[in-house]
Design a protein that fits this description.
Chain lengths: 81, 147, 96
């Protein structure tokens, strides 16, 4: 039963982080929240018993965050002074 | 990324982190048959190690794998995979039928192990080189931290 | 228009909630996906491929052709990204 509650909490957190990514104005904040989304996705995949998918998601979450930040810098957007 | 970016803290942390990341990537590659992991994850981990080094030390400081070389290496990785498939076809099997690999091993299951290891090496090289190529194209000649 | 979009999304959420009760629970041995192919892999993959991990056995051996396609897709996507990002730089580029 405790596992069910944990799964429900993780799913709610996934939906909440997705909504934040969609609505936040600062693109840098969106990237950081997206990496948090990827972390919750890793935990959820581990809970439902697929460590291979969780491993892939963890590594790709790191690499895609680096890519997003580089692309943001290339576009000269979202850098606040 | 042209110039190095760093303080003493970042330099030291990166020197500790990169070897372990690369070693873990190799472990995931050769141990993929027994534990979670495999070619794709190993390639992404090796590329993440190179990316950390690039982020801290600048573009020319580490692993001369920039420009066209990375794209060519990615093609070679995918080509190695297809080549193993064609080798099994030449020796009388179907495409990717590892039991027909020309090795002096008589147990077919062990031949399958070698075949799986070969294609995982191909996938690893392909994924690693692709990620490094995209990162280089994104950050070539620019400083991520200049302002 | 905005109200219509919100209404459509709400309708989709309702449909998903209604149909999700029909899905099999996770790791149910009586669900259709674990009745036909999965037992075959679980029983024979160690003997046939020598790999104790079914995921690797299925990905690299039984479904090796799919993984070849996946690798090719990754390579082509990376090459296209590099080409687009480099367009307009250096000699012969039209942008600038």
């Amino acid at each position: 039963m405790a596992e069910l509650y944990l799964e429900a909490i993780l799913l709610i957190l996934l939906i909440a982080t997705t909504l934040i990514v969609l609505t936040v104005k600062d693109l840098m904040a969106a990237i950081v929240v997206y990496s948090a989304f990827s972390y919750f996705a890793v935990l959820f995949y581990l809970m439902v018993g697929s460590p291979d998918v969780a491993f892939t998601e963890a590594v790709i979450g790191v690499v895609s965050t680096v890519f997003f930040i580089s692309a943001l810098k290339k576009l000269n957007r979202g850098v606040k002074h | 990324m042209k110039h190095r970016f760093g303080s003493i803290v970042l330099d030291t942390a990166f020197r500790v982190l990169v070897p372990f990341t690369l070693l873990y990537g190799f472990y995931v590659l050769v141990h993929g048959e027994y534990s979670p992991g495999g070619g794709f994850q190993a390639g992404a981990l090796l590329a993440a190690g190179v990316l950390i080094a690039r982020l801290v030390q600048g573009e020319e400081a580490v692993y001369d794998l920039s420009g066209n070389k990375a794209v060519v290496l990615a093609g070679l990785g995918a080509g190695l995979y297809a080549l193993i498939g064609f080798i099994t076809m030449v020796f009388g099997g179907k495409f990717l039928e590892y039991g027909r690999l020309p090795l002096s091993v008589h147990d077919p299951a062990e031949l399958h192990v070698y075949g799986i290891l070969g294609i995982e090496i191909g996938v690893t090289i392909g994924v690693m080189a692709t990620i490094i190529a995209i990162f280089d194209a994104l950050t070539r000649g620019e400083d991520l931290y200049d302002d | 228009m905005k109200k219509l979009g919100a209404l459509l999304i709400l309708a989709m959420i309702g449909i998903f909630c209604y149909t999700s009760s029909g899905l099999p629970t996770i790791s149910d041995p009586k669900s259709p996906p674990s009745q036909h192919v999965s037992p075959r892999y679980i029983e024979k993959s160690k003997i046939e491929t020598g790999s104790p991990n079914f995921v690797t056995a299925v990905l690299a051996d039984y479904r090796g052709y799919d993984t070849l396609g996946e690798t090719t897709v990754i390579f082509v996507a990376g090459a296209a990204t590099v080409m687009i990002l480099r367009a307009g730089k250096g000699k012969g580029g039209e942008g600038k």
